[in-house]
Amino acid sequence: MTRKTPLGFQPPSVGEEEIAAVADTLRSGWLTTGPRAALLEERMADYLDAKHVLAVASGTAAMHLALIALGVQAGDEVITTPITWPATANVIVHCGARPVFVDVREADLNIDPELVEAAVTPRTKAIMPVHLAGQPGDLDPIWALGLPVVEDAAHAAEAAYRGRKLGGLSDATCFSLYATKNIAAGEGGLVSTNRDDVAQAIRDLRLMRRGDGSRYDITVPGYKANLSDVLAAIALVQLDKLPEHTARRERQFELYDEGLADVDGVEPLARDPRDTHALHLYIVKVDAERFGATRDELQRALGEERISTSIHFLPVHRLTWYRERFPDQPPLPVAERAGDEILSLPLSPAHSEGDIRDVIEAVRRIHAGVA
Fold first, then answer.
1. All domains of the chain, ordered by start, with CATH?
2. Which helix H or strand E contains 140, and what residues bound it?
3. What is the pLDDT of residues 226-252, one digit of tens each?
4. What's the CA gap between 103 and 145, in Å, rounded?
5. Which residues are catalytically annotated?
6. Nearest-CA neighbor of 236 among 62, 32, 44?
7. What's the pTM?
């Protein structure tokens, strides 16, 4: 039966605590970067087991500043995955460098380390793996190449790779505080690193501020990429709620795993038992022949059931700007097939178990009607 009310894809779970934190911040007089942003950095450094955490305006800004801090510039190449939000590639372009897209692994759609190694050239300045949906990429063979690594961990705040928290493992790790993320401040980002030089470079780049007195100077042409205390206050409350929210997402994953296990043609992305998955997205691949309908047809049918879904992601190298700018890009068959098959189902601590069961029942009902 069609839902009486629409089900959002990934609404943030916020309550009176976040509202009170914002009100307290407004009353404090600190609207821009101040003590709450500093406290967020301190607490996230402890949570991530990282020496430094820098709060910035967005996950995109985090990646951009990390690349600049590592010296990426015109003429360089940065190897990355096509299955990501375009921001991952955009920041490489903003540095004047070229994104080199290599294909992904079939099981989890994370970057294939063997193809990364084959793509390294004398111009390669860094590698940017993406931890899709919250599943850490295979980092050991990437680190073994001896190049700087900037992790796009926008989906992976709670993730751990082989028992170690993401955040202090690579040259820089970049997180997002966007409205849909597991720590949702509305907007914002974080860079974590154990490298003093990278941390200092990002501090210098993210904000130009006056020093003591009326005279000021700059040593680097910085950006305006700081995080306000208003947003940091929200993130701090969300951090407090993380254990509760994680438990809810774990239950929603369990419901999906159980409820869709026997639906032919619907297969969730693999989750490596050696790692801690951040449970940010529940992505399935839809095999049109086995399911009886394409991904797009299933998405439209769920929409008619008043259930919102999303796609994470369309291959970046096939988007107009990249396709036209880099016409010599070779085919990436796994990523291109995934771009036609993957669908993200509703997942949020704001959803009830009944909401998730509605999605499962709708998928099963649609399958029964087309199989």
1. 16-240 (3.40.640.10), 242-370 (3.90.1150.10)
2. helix 140-143
3. 999 999 999 999 999 999 999 999 999
4. 17
5. 181
6. 44
7. 0.97
